């Protein structure tokens, strides 16, 4: 399937990057505990409450480390994407599914497969980076992380676009949309936290 990144998505990513970098300057050693660091960092994301809900239980492992925070956010998004892909795959046998709906489901399964692959690649690449590291190789790897995570967000949006129009309305669309939207929100938050990590270098 031919894919293109919508101008609105590009503007969103640029906005998220700028906002994250600006707000990240207020984060750092002044926070008294690990949970407060996670909470403050999540304020730089598009969905701060969801971010804190998803990541606060990992605060003791994150320990006020921006790279570890971004890595954990990617891991959470990857796990959510895997679960969503399985869920959408099960919808292929949804009772009363129409031919058009079945096509949309099949396309969505493909998109979510791409999402899983890209998030997995992003997480693997991010694990190679160390706190305080910089240099040409660092920025090349970080660029890969940003590109793959942004592409995963595009895949998720493309899946949802396949269910556009009133003809697709109904329980099947609602069920799938609920799962994919959650993945997209987690991915968006992970991208913002990657930008927070980048702003430290």
From TrEMBL:
Residues 33-193 form the Pectinesterase inhibitor domain. Residues 1-24 form the signal peptide. The keyword Manganese does not apply. It comes from Brassica oleracea var. oleracea. SUPFAM superfamilies: Plant invertase/pectin methylesterase inhibitor. This is Pectinesterase inhibitor domain-containing protein. Pfam families: PMEI. PANTHER family: PECTINESTERASE INHIBITOR 7 (PTHR31080:SF87), PECTINESTERASE INHIBITOR-LIKE (PTHR31080). Keywords: Signal. One of its GO terms (molecular function) is pectinesterase inhibitor activity. InterPro entries: Invertase/methylesterase_inhib, Pectinesterase_inhib_dom, PME_Inhibitor. Belongs to the PMEI family. The keyword Signal applies. NCBIfam families: PME_inhib.
